[in-house]
Design goal:
This is Dihydropteridine reductase. Residues 1-107 form the FAD-binding FR-type domain. Helices cover 20% and strands 31% of the residues. The chain is an alpha/beta fold and 240 residues long. The two termini are 25 Å apart. Residues 234-240 have low confidence and may be disordered.
């Protein structure tokens, strides 16, 4: 396993509780849209065993052409040891990234794509939308629906409705409205439904989608093969 140590080049305060850390791109480090990585702080591998409290599984919110590895995360006032250390890091400090992989690349199957997310989960979808805006081949339309009770919506410069670009972006701040909108979207029985958020959020969305007649194979989750069976019918893990 290769561990890439890299420096923080810039810190963007997206909202009072959400920051994006832009990291320098190490030589030969590549990734695709929908990628996640293991993001680790100094000292995580100092002992005989990795200190897991200094490692987090994070989505990459940028694409390679932006010349930065973006890690977007929510840091509340009361937070974990990991987030407390991260909050105090500054430009020039080093972090590590390793085991980078994408479970949710943009499927180009000539269908509509629906991106369903909660809060900072939108960071996973930013590269998918950018990839579509750069090259719209074999995707009919992208519709993003994001719920954030803080009303501090993320990436509104990218997630903006544009009929010309075949993009619709919706933001809501309460569950009732969110799930009504999800039901409305399921009028498209042939679409692809990507879901990113907490496990509870995933399960609730899957329940609604299946009840509305969306097939399990149309639902795409940011989970490894072995984790999919916990959320979707067992036979799916053999079909993906």
């Amino acid at each position: 396993m290769q561990i890439y140590w890299t420096k923080i080049n810039k810190i963007i305060e997206e909202t009072p509780e959400v920051r994006t850390y832009l990291l320098a791109c190490p030589q030969n480090f590549t990734w695709e849209e929908g990628s996640h990585t293991h993001f680790a702080l100094e000292g995580f591998n100092a002992g005989d065993k990795p200190n897991r409290s200094l490692i987090r599984h994070m989505s990459i919110s940028t694409l390679p052409h932006e010349n930065a590895i973006g890690i977007t995360t929510r840091i509340r006032e009361q937070c974990s040891e990991f987030k407390t250390i991260l909050k105090n890091l500054t430009v020039g400090d080093e972090v590590a990234i390793f085991k980078t992989h994408s479970n949710v690349p943009l499927k180009r199957e000539g269908k509509n794509v629906y991106l369903l997310s909660s809060g900072v989960g939108l960071a996973t979808f930013r590269p998918l939308l950018l990839d579509f805006l750069n090259r719209a081949d074999n995707v009919n339309h992208i519709h993003s629906l994001n719920i954030d009770s803080s009303k501090k919506f993320l990436f509104t410069d990218v997630f903006a409705s544009s009929p010309d670009k075949k993009v619709t972006a919706q933001f809501v701040d309460n569950r009732e409205e969110y799930y009504e909108e999800v039901k409305n979207l399921t009028d498209d029985k042939d679409g692809l439904y990507y879901v990113v958020g907490s496990d509870e959020f995933l399960l609730q969305n899957i329940k609604v989608l299946l009840e509305q007649g969306i097939k399990a194979e149309q639902i795409i989750l940011d989970k490894h093969e072995q984790q999919l069976a916990e959320f979707l019918p067992l036979h799916l893990s053999n079909e993906r």
